[in-house]
Amino acid sequence: MSFNALFMAHAPDANPDDVALVETPTYKLYSVAIKNQAEALATARKLVDEKGVESIILCPGFSNKDIAELDEAVGEGVGVSVSRGDAPSNACAFKAMQREGWMH
Q1: Which of 34, 64, 87, 90 is the most buried (most CB within 10 A)?
Q2: Strand ranges for the chain from DSSP E
């Protein structure tokens, strides 16, 4: 038996079928990039149902509305958390995303 978690992040060229797995005897961490909220909802539901995900960690790009929709979609038995950075950390990430053409 293991604790199963999912990390989801946004990427403009994401393929939600590409799921990475980090695994120990007691922990499985699935990681996937998605393009939009529709993909996030479908991916979360799928991995909760198929892989027994019990906790979802989201990148800072998810809005409060997105988080609420995900929470509703996966049900009460699954925790939903968001990783947020401080202003300097967010500025570093934003600069890197701009450099890679994520924003115009």
Answers
A1: 34
A2: 3-10, 19-23, 27-34, 55-58, 79-82
